[in-house]
Amino acid sequence: MNSKKFVNLLAVMLGIVGVRTVGARSNLTELYDNLFMEVLIFGLIVFILVLVLWIYVVYKFRDSAVDEAKGVEGTHLLKLQRIWIAVPILIGVLLLALSLPALGEFQQELNNPVADKEVIVEATPTWKWIFYYEGQKFSPVEDDIGISTTTLVLEAGLTYKFILYSSGPLIHSFYVYELNFKMDVVPQKNNTITVTIEEPGEYQLLCAEYCGAQHSMMRGVIKAVAP
């Protein structure tokens, strides 16, 4: 594994546990990160409680502590079952309460009608991205191993409205990790997402929805240049 692949793999692993390797790149980053950290902290609390309960049960009902002739008393099983049902429901309600405000704000940002420019994104049935922007068509370039990469050049600091559609029967997902946005690309329907690219840089575009044999070959780059 070369150094570039190792760095990319490390970035993905850190992203999974909520550690960002880059600063904010778009107006959506803070919304995502705050919600992720809230859910992560809540999940860690639940994990610790379950772990403590598991250790207690293992110790309490170890072989040496149980009368083999009598077995384990079952008088409280009904109560335990009720608790086992009520606690996951409560956890689900609490997670919903945490998520709804952030998701509402995020949805408002996505559907923001105010944008400086529009970009039309086509996902082709041959597993390629094609961009139409300011009268230009940005087509993919295929490398030696068959990976098709389409590079779109935009201006940092502007707000863009991406209009996405699939020209074939496949469902895709337009995903740019460093800009913190992802949107499904489906046949016979235009999905839109509005995002402000705050800093210059090259941001990798992937398809995050398994779409067939060449799913992993469907790549793109959004290159944001200084004004």
Architecture overview:
- The chain is 35% helix and 28% strand.
- By secondary structure, it is α+β, with helices and mostly antiparallel strands.
- Strand 7 (172-176) and strand 8 (181-185) form a beta hairpin.
- Helix 2 (29-60) packs antiparallel against helix 3 (77-110).
- The protein is elongated and about 80 Å long.
- It starts with a helix and ends with a strand.
The ordered H/E elements are HHHEEEEEEEEEEE
Strand content: 25-35%
What class, by secondary structure content? Answer: alpha+beta
What is the global morphology?
A: elongated
Helix percentage range:
25-40%
Cross-sheet strand order for the largest sheet: 4-5-11-10-7-8
Residue stretches low in confidence (pLDDT < 50, at least 5 long) are 16-24
Radius of gyration: 24 Å
Number of strands: 11
Quick one: biggest sheet?
6 strands, mixed
Instruction: Give the end-to-end Cα distance, rounded to a whole number of Å.
Output: 37 Å
Question: Mean pLDDT across all residues, rounded?
Answer: 81
How many H/I helical runs?
A: 3
Layout of secondary structure:
Elements: H1 3-16, H2 29-60, H3 77-110, E1 117-123, E2 129-133, E3 136-138, E4 141-142, E5 148-155, E6 159-166, E7 172-176, E8 181-185, E9 191-196, E10 201-207, E11 218-225
Parallel strand pairs: 1-6, 5-11
Antiparallel strand pairs: 1-2, 2-3, 4-5, 6-9, 7-8, 7-10, 10-11
Helix pairs in contact: 2-3
